[in-house]
Amino acid sequence: MSGPPVLGALVEFRQLDLFAAQSSGVHRLDARAKVVVVLAFVVCVMSFGRYAVASLLPYFAFPVLVAIWAQLPFAMLARKVAMVVPIAVLIGLPNPFFDREMVLHVAGLGISGGWISLVSIVLRALLAAAAAIVLVAVTGFPAVCGALERLGMPKALAVQLLFLYRYLTVLGEEALRMTTARELRGGGRKLSIRLYGVLVGRLLMRTWDRAERIYLAMCARGFVGDFNSGPVSRFGWRDLAFVGGCCGAFLLFRVRDVVQVVGNAALGGGR
Amino acid sequence: MHMADALLSPAVGGMMWGATAVTVAYCARRLQADPDERRVPLMGVLGAFLFAAQMINFSIPGTGSSGHLGGGLLLAILLGPHAAFLVVASVLMVQALFFADGGLLALGCNIFNLGFFPAFIGYPLYRRLCGPAPGPGRAAGAAIVAAIVSLQLGAFGVVLETVGSGISALPFGTFVLFMLPIHFAIGIVEGLVTAAVVSFVRATRPEVLPSATSVGSSIRSVAVTFLALAMALGGVGAWYASKDPDGLEWSVARVTGSSEQNSPDTAVHAALGRIQQQIALLPDYNFRKPAEEGGQARGDGAADNETRLGTSVAGIVGGLITLVVAVVIGTLLARRARRSGMRN
After folding, report:
1. How confident is the model at residue A187 (pLDDT cuts 50, 70, 90)?
2. Cβ B28–A257 below 8 Å, yes or no?
3. CA B171 – CA B285 distance, rounded (Å)
4. Using the 8-state DSSP alphabet, how is residue B208 labeled?
5. B132 found inside a domain
6. B54 belongs to a structural domain
7. If contacts are CB pairs under 8 Å, which of residues 68-87 in chain B contact chain A?
8. Which residue in the set A157, A196, A267 is minimally distant from B265, CB to CB?
9. pLDDT, tens digit (0-9, with 9 covering 90-100), for B172-193
10. Average of pLDDT values for A79-94?
11. CA-to-CA distance for A155 and B28, rounded, in angstroms?
């Protein structure tokens, strides 16, 4: 994971995009079904109280199951998801300081509520990241946009997202070339704000020219304000079963304490 | 300044999704009325530009640390507020989906905090401070003020959303005192960077920058909508925040009540149930009740109501502060609109 941040981000972006090009049972589901299920998943997970730890664990089943079903490379996904841990720890760290009431005594060691909620925050962050990454990996970004549009997102935003998606790597590479060139000639000096203005201003002007060329090319090809996104998928009984099954399971995990069964293995094994 | 799913309750997240959806629809409609098709690819590519520009770090003088562009204000200066809001929204959506940055539930919060304030509060302020033909110093000053105001409001939004959700234990006052000064400094840097890029563009290709167009009364109506939302978030959202843990408490209590075993994880559950009873009804941003030792009496309705009252009061006080800030800005905008009306 060395190299400039631009490069790292581009690599991440492409890896995830390639997963979406595969074909599996999950990949073939209607994109709307997957979007709805993932949103329900996130809402269910985040609706738990501050000290929920054990009750969150069953929810890991969903991303794991989908990843296996879609035959996604598990280690790579896990690494992507785990990248949120430092940030989650950072935003959860105030809790042990402000919430110091001892609530738990394990082997003579007192644990405050703050530490429990810190663990809860890290678990939430992992689940949220896993949900988002799995959604893109089994659906693909253009299909997610299409689904959102069919679920009511304005067309202007859908077109905007598709443009952004198409030119992300192009401009990312442009930025990469510019920063590499500056680093090679800069003699190890850091980038000052004034020079940053020049560098980014130059990138902006190139972007502007590119937009002009794209516009002319679009006109030449008869662009009428919409992308041709291939055949429109139908919402079939498979999709309905997927939505029903998943949402039902999420609700069950939310209402019933499945932890008594699943948590026994998860917590007992860890200690 | 990304808000994270992990700190968010569905009530607050859903409310901000609603606020963002309304703003997206409004912006999309405004853009549809604009016949210039050239804008469509321009917006798309500028989104990619913003993404790339955010990955180039500059060094912040005197600190040894580095920062990157936020870009909401820059986009608003280049594209106008409506297009800028949609571009920021698209960038944040890609970040949430591909990089798990923020998260899906927090998307509404993030688009609102990082898109609405620069486009609809910061940008009008910038135009007002800049005047029709600004010199470089004045343009930079205007950018800095506008960036500071946008970031302060955005940071305050993060505080309200976090405290209203009740997952983080950070008390309201501490969090505000932490976030606002930091984002004041970040605002200065953001303003300087924005001014640097704009001045480069002005020097090399001034025709790219739009001429001073009126951002009139429609902004005011948006600002009013925002106020209503802020109050709703402060009042109702905070109320839900304290109500939410009850469901878990209920289910945990049920489990602990029905099981007899003494296995360690049952002890964990029992303890968790007790924590719920002791703390969840009294989040840290509440008015604390006088110390009591029992913990049993707190489950009753009166204590519950009292807690809810305290939570709502904390939320509404926060909302009122935003209200004051927004009223000042709204008044400035109104006066400006009136004056430009008279000039015409």
Report:
1. confident
2. no
3. 5
4. G
5. yes
6. yes
7. 69, 78, 86-87
8. A267
9. 888 888 889 888 988 998 999 8
10. 87
11. 8
Q: Which residues does A65 contact at the CB level (< 8 Å), separation at least 6?
A: none
Q: Which among B48, B166, B200 is the nearest to A50, CB-wise? A: B166
pLDDT for the residue B113: 93
Write out pLDDT tens, residues A188-197: 787 888 888 8
Note if the pTM is more than 0.80. Answer: no
Most confident of A98-102, B117-121, B214-218, B340-344: B117-121
CA A153/CA A1 separation, integer angstroms? 36
What pLDDT, on a 0 to 100 scale, did the predictor assign at position B294?
Answer: 39
Q: Report the CATH number that the domain containing residue B47 is assigned in CATH.
A: 1.10.1760.20
Contact between B303 and B281 under an 8 Å Cβ cutoff? The reply is yes
Q: Give how many domains chain B has, as a whole number.
A: 1
Contact A117 B89 (CB under 8 A): no
CA distance A25 to A22: 10
**Res. B2 pLDDT band, cuts 50 70 90:** confident
DSSP secondary structure letter of residue B118: I
Could you give the angle at which helices B72-79 and B39-54 cross, rounded to 10 degrees?
160
Res. B115 pLDDT band, cuts 50 70 90: very high
CA A33, CA A38: separation in Å to the nearest integer?
9
Q: How far is A262 from B6, CA to CA, in rounded Å?
A: 22
C-alpha distance from A46 to closest chain B C-alpha (Å): 6
- Give the pLDDT score at B235: 52
Chain A, residues 76-135, CB within 8 A of chain B, namely 80-81, 83-84, 87-88, 91-92, 94-95, 98-99, 101, 103-104, 106, 113-114, 116-117, 120-122, 124-125, 128-129, 131-133, 135
> Which of A39, A168, A171 is opposite residue B94, by nearest beta carbon?
A168
Residue-wise pLDDT for B282-333, tens only, equals 333 333 333 333 334 344 444 444 444 444 444 444 444 434 444 444 444 4
Domain that holds residue B189: 5-214
Length of chain A: 271
What pLDDT, in 10s, does the model give residues A43-69? 999 988 888 888 888 888 899 888 888
- ipTM greater than 0.85: yes
Number of Cβ atoms within 10 Å of the Cβ of A116: 24
Handedness of CA A101, A104, A109, A112 (dihedral sign): negative
Of the partner residues B48, B170, B196, the one whose CB lies closest to the CB of residue A167: B48
Nearest in space to B71 (alpha carbons), one of B108, B137, B122: B122
Distance CA A134, CA B259 (A): 36
B119 found inside a domain: yes
Residue B219 burial by CB count (10 A; 0-12/13-18/19+): exposed, middle or buried? buried
Tell which of A193, A221, A251, A258 to mutate to test the B interface (max B CBs under 10 Å): A193
